[in-house]
Protein backbone atom coordinates (compact mmCIF):
# COMPACT_ATOMS: atom_id res chain seq x y z
CA UNK A 1 0.00 0.00 0.00
CA UNK A 2 1.27 3.45 -0.78
CA UNK A 3 1.80 4.99 2.65
CA UNK A 4 0.93 8.60 3.19
CA UNK A 5 3.78 10.69 4.53
CA UNK A 6 3.05 12.74 7.69
CA UNK A 7 3.05 16.04 5.81
CA UNK A 8 0.64 14.85 3.10
CA UNK A 9 -2.64 16.73 2.90
CA UNK A 10 -5.45 15.63 5.13
CA UNK A 11 -7.96 17.88 3.47
CA UNK A 12 -9.19 17.87 -0.10
CA UNK A 13 -10.90 20.65 -2.02
CA UNK A 14 -13.20 20.07 -4.98
CA UNK A 15 -16.81 19.81 -6.05
CA UNK A 16 -18.55 17.21 -3.93
CA UNK A 17 -21.27 14.81 -5.02
CA UNK A 18 -22.70 12.28 -2.61
CA UNK A 19 -25.86 10.28 -1.95
CA UNK A 20 -27.90 11.23 1.10
CA UNK A 21 -28.24 7.87 2.86
CA UNK A 22 -31.31 8.77 4.92
CA UNK A 23 -33.28 10.00 1.93
CA UNK A 24 -36.76 8.43 2.01
CA UNK A 25 -36.89 7.69 -1.74
CA UNK A 26 -33.26 6.56 -1.86
CA UNK A 27 -32.46 8.68 -4.88
CA UNK A 28 -31.41 12.04 -3.56
CA UNK A 29 -27.91 13.37 -3.96
CA UNK A 30 -26.15 16.35 -2.47
CA UNK A 31 -23.75 18.62 -4.34
CA UNK A 32 -21.39 21.22 -2.89
CA UNK A 33 -19.83 23.33 -5.65
CA UNK A 34 -16.71 24.17 -3.66
CA UNK A 35 -16.22 21.76 -0.78
CA UNK A 36 -13.58 20.82 1.74
CA UNK A 37 -13.38 17.15 2.65
CA UNK A 38 -11.31 16.65 5.81
CA UNK A 39 -10.04 13.18 6.75
CA UNK A 40 -9.22 12.45 10.39
CA UNK A 41 -6.20 10.46 11.55
CA UNK A 42 -8.51 7.43 11.91
CA UNK A 43 -9.27 7.50 8.16
CA UNK A 44 -12.82 8.72 8.75
CA UNK A 45 -14.44 11.78 7.25
CA UNK A 46 -14.21 14.58 9.82
CA UNK A 47 -15.83 17.27 7.69
CA UNK A 48 -17.59 17.55 4.32
CA UNK A 49 -18.75 21.13 4.01
CA UNK A 50 -18.49 24.24 1.83
CA UNK A 51 -14.94 25.56 1.63
CA UNK A 52 -14.32 28.62 3.80
CA UNK A 53 -10.94 30.40 3.45
CA UNK A 54 -8.84 30.06 6.61
CA UNK A 55 -11.30 27.73 8.34
CA UNK A 56 -8.98 24.70 8.12
CA UNK A 57 -5.46 24.91 9.55
CA UNK A 58 -3.29 22.54 7.58
CA UNK A 59 -2.34 21.62 4.06
CA UNK A 60 -5.15 21.30 1.54
CA UNK A 61 -4.83 19.34 -1.68
CA UNK A 62 -6.75 21.33 -4.24
CA UNK A 63 -8.33 18.84 -6.65
CA UNK A 64 -10.63 21.36 -8.41
CA UNK A 65 -12.22 21.13 -10.91
CA UNK A 66 -12.50 17.42 -10.12
CA UNK A 67 -15.62 16.10 -8.43
CA UNK A 68 -15.14 14.19 -5.17
CA UNK A 69 -17.57 11.31 -4.80
CA UNK A 70 -17.73 7.96 -2.97
CA UNK A 71 -15.62 5.23 -4.55
CA UNK A 72 -17.65 2.70 -6.51
CA UNK A 73 -18.48 -0.68 -5.01
CA UNK A 74 -18.50 -3.72 -7.27
CA UNK A 75 -20.63 -6.30 -5.47
CA UNK A 76 -19.92 -9.16 -7.88
CA UNK A 77 -16.72 -9.72 -9.86
CA UNK A 78 -14.66 -12.81 -10.78
CA UNK A 79 -10.89 -12.38 -10.38
CA UNK A 80 -9.90 -15.40 -12.56
CA UNK A 81 -12.04 -14.07 -15.43
CA UNK A 82 -9.99 -10.89 -15.80
CA UNK A 83 -8.50 -12.09 -19.08
CA UNK A 84 -11.63 -13.60 -20.64
CA UNK A 85 -13.70 -10.40 -20.76
CA UNK A 86 -15.54 -10.29 -24.06
CA UNK A 87 -15.45 -14.01 -24.83
CA UNK A 88 -18.71 -14.34 -26.70
CA UNK A 89 -19.07 -18.11 -26.58
CA UNK A 90 -22.74 -18.56 -25.86
CA UNK A 91 -25.24 -18.51 -23.03
CA UNK A 92 -24.16 -19.16 -19.45
CA UNK A 93 -23.48 -22.91 -19.39
CA UNK A 94 -21.72 -23.00 -22.79
CA UNK A 95 -19.72 -19.89 -21.92
CA UNK A 96 -18.56 -21.46 -18.64
CA UNK A 97 -17.53 -24.64 -20.45
CA UNK A 98 -15.77 -22.97 -23.39
CA UNK A 99 -14.28 -19.77 -21.97
CA UNK A 100 -14.29 -19.73 -18.19
CA UNK A 101 -13.41 -23.18 -16.90
CA UNK A 102 -10.25 -23.57 -19.05
CA UNK A 103 -9.05 -20.12 -17.92
CA UNK A 104 -9.85 -20.73 -14.24
CA UNK A 105 -7.83 -23.96 -14.37
CA UNK A 106 -4.73 -21.89 -15.17
CA UNK A 107 -4.88 -20.37 -11.69
CA UNK A 108 -3.35 -23.50 -10.16
CA UNK A 109 -0.13 -21.89 -11.37
CA UNK A 110 0.62 -19.41 -8.58
CA UNK A 111 2.89 -17.27 -10.74
CA UNK A 112 0.02 -16.83 -13.20
CA UNK A 113 -2.39 -16.07 -10.34
CA UNK A 114 -0.01 -13.43 -8.99
CA UNK A 115 0.35 -11.81 -12.40
CA UNK A 116 -3.38 -11.61 -13.04
CA UNK A 117 -4.14 -10.51 -9.46
CA UNK A 118 -2.00 -7.42 -10.11
CA UNK A 119 -3.90 -6.72 -13.34
CA UNK A 120 -7.20 -7.24 -11.54
CA UNK A 121 -6.56 -4.76 -8.72
CA UNK A 122 -5.06 -2.25 -11.16
CA UNK A 123 -8.12 -2.30 -13.35
CA UNK A 124 -10.51 -1.93 -10.43
CA UNK A 125 -8.66 1.12 -9.14
CA UNK A 126 -8.39 2.73 -12.56
CA UNK A 127 -12.18 2.42 -12.82
CA UNK A 128 -12.77 4.16 -9.49
CA UNK A 129 -13.78 1.01 -7.64
CA UNK A 130 -12.61 1.11 -4.02
CA UNK A 131 -14.56 -1.88 -2.65
CA UNK A 132 -14.94 -5.22 -4.42
CA UNK A 133 -16.75 -8.44 -3.59
CA UNK A 134 -14.85 -11.13 -5.42
CA UNK A 135 -15.02 -14.75 -6.52
CA UNK A 136 -11.59 -16.35 -6.74
CA UNK A 137 -10.99 -19.70 -8.46
CA UNK A 138 -11.35 -23.02 -6.63
CA UNK A 139 -7.60 -22.99 -5.95
CA UNK A 140 -6.55 -21.95 -2.43
CA UNK A 141 -3.11 -20.77 -3.57
CA UNK A 142 -4.64 -18.41 -6.15
CA UNK A 143 -7.05 -17.09 -3.52
CA UNK A 144 -4.14 -16.35 -1.21
CA UNK A 145 -2.46 -14.45 -4.10
CA UNK A 146 -5.65 -12.49 -4.65
CA UNK A 147 -5.74 -11.39 -1.00
CA UNK A 148 -2.07 -10.40 -1.16
CA UNK A 149 -2.79 -8.25 -4.19
CA UNK A 150 -5.83 -6.61 -2.56
CA UNK A 151 -3.70 -5.80 0.49
CA UNK A 152 -0.85 -4.43 -1.62
CA UNK A 153 -3.27 -2.27 -3.62
CA UNK A 154 -4.94 -0.91 -0.47
CA UNK A 155 -8.39 -1.93 -1.71
CA UNK A 156 -11.31 -2.81 0.52
CA UNK A 157 -12.25 -6.35 -0.51
CA UNK A 158 -14.45 -9.27 0.41
CA UNK A 159 -13.27 -12.38 -1.41
CA UNK A 160 -13.75 -16.11 -1.33
CA UNK A 161 -12.49 -19.45 -2.54
CA UNK A 162 -14.96 -20.66 -5.17
CA UNK A 163 -16.41 -23.98 -4.00
CA UNK A 164 -17.29 -26.63 -6.59
CA UNK A 165 -17.23 -30.39 -6.04
CA UNK A 166 -19.43 -31.73 -8.85
CA UNK A 167 -20.50 -31.18 -12.47
CA UNK A 168 -17.33 -29.32 -13.38
CA UNK A 169 -13.99 -30.15 -15.03
CA UNK A 170 -11.66 -32.31 -12.92
CA UNK A 171 -9.07 -29.52 -12.89
CA UNK A 172 -11.44 -27.30 -10.92
CA UNK A 173 -13.23 -29.85 -8.75
CA UNK A 174 -12.16 -29.75 -5.09
CA UNK A 175 -13.82 -32.28 -2.77
CA UNK A 176 -15.38 -31.09 0.47
CA UNK A 177 -12.69 -32.63 2.70
CA UNK A 178 -10.09 -30.45 0.96
CA UNK A 179 -12.13 -27.35 0.21
CA UNK A 180 -13.54 -26.70 3.69
CA UNK A 181 -10.18 -26.94 5.51
CA UNK A 182 -8.64 -24.73 2.80
CA UNK A 183 -11.40 -22.16 3.31
CA UNK A 184 -10.90 -22.32 7.09
CA UNK A 185 -7.17 -21.69 6.61
CA UNK A 186 -7.89 -18.68 4.43
CA UNK A 187 -10.33 -17.33 7.04
CA UNK A 188 -7.59 -17.52 9.63
CA UNK A 189 -5.01 -15.93 7.39
CA UNK A 190 -7.06 -13.15 5.80
CA UNK A 191 -10.39 -12.41 7.46
CA UNK A 192 -10.05 -8.99 9.11
CA UNK A 193 -6.56 -8.32 7.72
CA UNK A 194 -5.55 -4.92 6.39
CA UNK A 195 -6.96 -3.37 9.56
CA UNK A 196 -10.36 -4.84 8.69
CA UNK A 197 -10.36 -3.83 5.02
CA UNK A 198 -10.27 -7.49 3.97
CA UNK A 199 -12.91 -10.11 4.64
CA UNK A 200 -13.26 -13.72 3.61
CA UNK A 201 -16.57 -14.76 2.03
CA UNK A 202 -18.06 -18.24 1.77
CA UNK A 203 -18.41 -18.67 -1.98
CA UNK A 204 -20.24 -21.69 -3.44
CA UNK A 205 -20.08 -21.14 -7.22
CA UNK A 206 -23.74 -22.05 -7.75
CA UNK A 207 -26.04 -24.87 -6.78
CA UNK A 208 -25.44 -27.18 -9.78
CA UNK A 209 -21.71 -27.43 -9.07
CA UNK A 210 -22.00 -27.97 -5.29
CA UNK A 211 -23.11 -31.10 -3.44
CA UNK A 212 -25.51 -30.75 -0.55
CA UNK A 213 -22.87 -31.83 2.04
CA UNK A 214 -20.43 -29.24 0.67
CA UNK A 215 -23.00 -26.45 0.93
CA UNK A 216 -24.00 -27.56 4.44
CA UNK A 217 -20.38 -27.54 5.62
CA UNK A 218 -19.84 -24.15 3.98
CA UNK A 219 -22.92 -22.76 5.72
CA UNK A 220 -21.59 -23.94 9.11
CA UNK A 221 -18.27 -22.22 8.45
CA UNK A 222 -20.10 -19.02 7.49
CA UNK A 223 -22.13 -19.05 10.70
CA UNK A 224 -19.15 -19.93 12.90
CA UNK A 225 -17.25 -16.85 11.73
CA UNK A 226 -20.09 -14.50 10.76
CA UNK A 227 -18.92 -14.49 7.13
CA UNK A 228 -20.67 -13.06 4.10
CA UNK A 229 -22.05 -15.78 1.79
CA UNK A 230 -21.97 -15.05 -1.93
CA UNK A 231 -23.24 -17.16 -4.80
CA UNK A 232 -25.31 -17.05 -7.99
CA UNK A 233 -29.03 -17.65 -8.29
CA UNK A 234 -31.47 -17.95 -11.20
CA UNK A 235 -29.24 -16.39 -13.83
CA UNK A 236 -30.36 -18.57 -16.71
CA UNK A 237 -33.25 -21.02 -17.28
CA UNK A 238 -30.97 -23.97 -18.18
CA UNK A 239 -28.99 -23.35 -14.99
CA UNK A 240 -32.24 -23.43 -13.04
CA UNK A 241 -33.12 -26.80 -14.59
CA UNK A 242 -29.64 -28.16 -13.80
CA UNK A 243 -30.09 -27.00 -10.21
CA UNK A 244 -33.29 -28.97 -9.73
CA UNK A 245 -31.81 -32.04 -11.46
CA UNK A 246 -28.84 -31.90 -9.06
CA UNK A 247 -31.02 -31.20 -6.01
CA UNK A 248 -34.41 -32.88 -6.61
CA UNK A 249 -35.30 -32.51 -2.91
CA UNK A 250 -35.67 -28.74 -3.30
CA UNK A 251 -38.96 -27.07 -4.29
CA UNK A 252 -37.16 -24.31 -6.26
CA UNK A 253 -33.75 -22.68 -6.68
CA UNK A 254 -33.86 -20.48 -3.58
CA UNK A 255 -35.02 -23.47 -1.54
CA UNK A 256 -31.67 -25.21 -2.24
CA UNK A 257 -29.70 -22.47 -0.52
CA UNK A 258 -32.36 -22.10 2.15
CA UNK A 259 -32.42 -25.76 3.18
CA UNK A 260 -28.64 -26.17 3.31
CA UNK A 261 -28.43 -23.15 5.63
CA UNK A 262 -26.71 -20.68 3.32
CA UNK A 263 -29.34 -17.93 3.72
CA UNK A 264 -27.70 -16.79 6.92
CA UNK A 265 -28.90 -13.19 6.93
CA UNK A 266 -25.63 -12.20 5.26
CA UNK A 267 -26.21 -13.83 1.88
CA UNK A 268 -25.52 -11.97 -1.36
CA UNK A 269 -27.04 -13.61 -4.44
CA UNK A 270 -26.08 -12.48 -7.91
CA UNK A 271 -28.49 -12.11 -10.86
CA UNK A 272 -31.84 -13.24 -9.36
CA UNK A 273 -33.54 -13.02 -12.77
CA UNK A 274 -35.80 -16.06 -12.99
CA UNK A 275 -37.34 -16.14 -9.52
CA UNK A 276 -40.92 -16.82 -8.49
CA UNK A 277 -42.77 -14.50 -6.09
CA UNK A 278 -42.32 -17.19 -3.41
CA UNK A 279 -38.57 -17.12 -3.89
CA UNK A 280 -38.47 -13.33 -3.68
CA UNK A 281 -40.53 -13.43 -0.52
CA UNK A 282 -38.21 -16.01 0.98
CA UNK A 283 -35.15 -13.87 0.18
CA UNK A 284 -36.85 -11.02 2.02
CA UNK A 285 -37.73 -13.20 5.02
CA UNK A 286 -34.16 -14.47 5.34
CA UNK A 287 -32.62 -10.98 5.16
CA UNK A 288 -30.75 -11.83 1.95
CA UNK A 289 -29.44 -9.28 -0.58
CA UNK A 290 -29.18 -9.51 -4.36
CA UNK A 291 -26.71 -8.17 -6.89
CA UNK A 292 -27.96 -6.77 -10.19
CA UNK A 293 -25.47 -7.49 -13.00
CA UNK A 294 -27.15 -6.02 -16.09
CA UNK A 295 -24.11 -5.77 -18.36
CA UNK A 296 -23.39 -9.46 -17.88
CA UNK A 297 -27.06 -10.31 -18.36
CA UNK A 298 -27.09 -8.56 -21.74
CA UNK A 299 -23.82 -10.17 -22.84
CA UNK A 300 -24.89 -13.74 -22.06
CA UNK A 301 -28.54 -13.17 -22.96
CA UNK A 302 -29.52 -14.31 -19.48
CA UNK A 303 -32.62 -12.19 -19.06
CA UNK A 304 -33.56 -9.09 -17.10
CA UNK A 305 -34.04 -8.51 -13.39
CA UNK A 306 -36.69 -5.96 -12.50
CA UNK A 307 -35.36 -3.68 -9.75
CA UNK A 308 -38.83 -3.33 -8.28
CA UNK A 309 -38.93 -7.06 -7.38
CA UNK A 310 -36.36 -6.71 -4.57
CA UNK A 311 -37.23 -3.12 -3.72
CA UNK A 312 -40.92 -3.81 -3.20
CA UNK A 313 -39.94 -6.40 -0.59
CA UNK A 314 -37.17 -4.45 1.09
CA UNK A 315 -34.46 -6.77 -0.26
CA UNK A 316 -31.26 -4.70 -0.56
CA UNK A 317 -29.97 -4.61 -4.12
CA UNK A 318 -26.42 -3.82 -5.17
CA UNK A 319 -24.73 -3.47 -8.53
CA UNK A 320 -22.07 -5.81 -9.89
CA UNK A 321 -19.91 -5.80 -13.00
CA UNK A 322 -19.80 -9.63 -13.09
CA UNK A 323 -16.54 -9.47 -15.03
CA UNK A 324 -15.81 -11.55 -17.14
CA UNK A 325 -19.40 -11.90 -18.38
CA UNK A 326 -19.68 -8.18 -17.71
CA UNK A 327 -17.68 -6.37 -20.39
CA UNK A 328 -16.00 -3.79 -18.20
CA UNK A 329 -14.63 -3.28 -14.70
CA UNK A 330 -16.10 0.22 -14.82
CA UNK A 331 -19.20 0.51 -12.66
CA UNK A 332 -20.27 3.43 -14.86
CA UNK A 333 -20.81 0.85 -17.61
CA UNK A 334 -22.90 -1.20 -15.16
CA UNK A 335 -24.96 1.88 -14.25
CA UNK A 336 -25.55 2.57 -17.94
CA UNK A 337 -26.54 -1.05 -18.57
CA UNK A 338 -28.88 -0.92 -15.56
CA UNK A 339 -30.62 1.98 -17.28
CA UNK A 340 -30.97 0.02 -20.54
CA UNK A 341 -32.18 -3.02 -18.62
CA UNK A 342 -34.84 -0.97 -16.85
CA UNK A 343 -35.94 0.69 -20.12
CA UNK A 344 -36.54 -2.75 -21.64
CA UNK A 345 -38.88 -3.44 -18.73
CA UNK A 346 -40.74 -0.14 -19.08
CA UNK A 347 -38.98 1.67 -16.22
CA UNK A 348 -36.80 4.76 -16.46
CA UNK A 349 -34.42 5.28 -13.53
CA UNK A 350 -32.74 8.68 -13.26
CA UNK A 351 -28.95 9.03 -13.32
CA UNK A 352 -29.22 9.96 -9.63
CA UNK A 353 -31.02 6.64 -8.94
CA UNK A 354 -28.21 4.79 -10.68
CA UNK A 355 -25.47 6.72 -8.86
CA UNK A 356 -27.08 5.98 -5.50
CA UNK A 357 -27.47 2.32 -6.51
CA UNK A 358 -23.74 2.04 -7.35
CA UNK A 359 -22.62 3.71 -4.10
CA UNK A 360 -24.82 3.74 -0.99
CA UNK A 361 -27.23 1.11 -2.35
CA UNK A 362 -24.46 -1.37 -3.04
CA UNK A 363 -22.78 -0.61 0.29
CA UNK A 364 -26.07 -1.47 2.01
CA UNK A 365 -26.41 -4.71 0.03
CA UNK A 366 -22.95 -5.96 0.99
CA UNK A 367 -23.37 -4.98 4.64
CA UNK A 368 -21.06 -1.94 4.59
CA UNK A 369 -23.72 0.76 4.42
CA UNK A 370 -22.66 2.38 7.69
CA UNK A 371 -18.98 2.28 6.76
CA UNK A 372 -18.80 3.54 3.16
CA UNK A 373 -21.08 4.51 0.26
CA UNK A 374 -21.44 8.25 0.90
CA UNK A 375 -19.26 11.17 1.94
CA UNK A 376 -20.79 11.78 5.34
CA UNK A 377 -18.99 12.69 8.53
CA UNK A 378 -18.07 9.55 10.47
CA UNK A 379 -17.83 7.26 7.46
CA UNK A 380 -14.50 5.85 6.31
CA UNK A 381 -12.96 8.07 3.66
CA UNK A 382 -13.25 5.89 0.53
CA UNK A 383 -13.56 8.42 -2.27
CA UNK A 384 -12.51 9.23 -5.80
CA UNK A 385 -11.74 12.43 -7.68
CA UNK A 386 -13.33 12.45 -11.15
CA UNK A 387 -12.50 14.98 -13.84
CA UNK A 388 -15.30 16.01 -16.21
CA UNK A 389 -15.14 18.04 -19.44
CA UNK A 390 -15.07 21.77 -18.63
CA UNK A 391 -18.60 22.45 -19.84
CA UNK A 392 -20.11 19.94 -17.42
CA UNK A 393 -21.14 22.05 -14.45
CA UNK A 394 -24.54 21.47 -12.83
CA UNK A 395 -25.56 18.45 -10.78
CA UNK A 396 -27.90 16.95 -13.37
CA UNK A 397 -25.38 17.37 -16.17
CA UNK A 398 -22.62 15.88 -14.02
CA UNK A 399 -24.72 12.81 -13.25
CA UNK A 400 -25.66 12.41 -16.93
CA UNK A 401 -22.02 12.46 -17.93
CA UNK A 402 -20.96 10.19 -15.10
CA UNK A 403 -23.46 7.49 -16.04
CA UNK A 404 -23.79 7.79 -19.81
CA UNK A 405 -21.15 9.87 -21.55
CA UNK A 406 -17.86 7.96 -20.94
CA UNK A 407 -15.98 11.27 -20.99
CA UNK A 408 -15.11 11.62 -17.30
CA UNK A 409 -11.76 10.39 -15.98
CA UNK A 410 -10.97 8.92 -12.59
CA UNK A 411 -7.95 10.94 -11.45
CA UNK A 412 -7.40 9.68 -7.93
CA UNK A 413 -8.75 7.15 -5.47
CA UNK A 414 -8.49 6.93 -1.69
CA UNK A 415 -9.41 4.14 0.72
CA UNK A 416 -9.80 5.05 4.38
CA UNK A 417 -8.08 8.30 3.50
CA UNK A 418 -5.02 6.58 2.03
CA UNK A 419 -4.12 7.34 -1.58
CA UNK A 420 -4.44 4.12 -3.61
CA UNK A 421 -4.59 5.45 -7.19
CA UNK A 422 -2.69 6.38 -9.26
ZN1 LIG B 1 -20.79 -14.21 -11.49
Any chance you could write out the topology, listing elements then pairs?
Elements: E1 11-19, E2 29-39, E3 45-50, E4 60-70, E5 72-78, H1 92-105, H2 110-126, E6 129-135, H3 140-153, E7 156-160, E8 162-163, H4 176-190, E9 198-200, E10 203-204, H5 212-225, E11 229-233, H6 237-246, H7 253-259, E12 267-271, H8 277-285, E13 289-292, H9 294-300, H10 308-313, E14 317-319, H11 331-344, H12 351-365, E15 383-387, H13 395-405, E16 409-415, E17 418-421
Parallel strand pairs: 1-4, 5-6, 6-7, 7-9, 8-10, 11-12, 12-13, 13-14
Antiparallel strand pairs: 1-2, 2-3, 4-15, 15-16, 16-17
Helix pairs in contact: 2-3, 3-4, 4-5, 11-12, 12-13
Zinc ion binds next to strand 5.
GO molecular function: guanine deaminase activity
Cofactor: Zn(2+)
Enzyme class: hydrolase
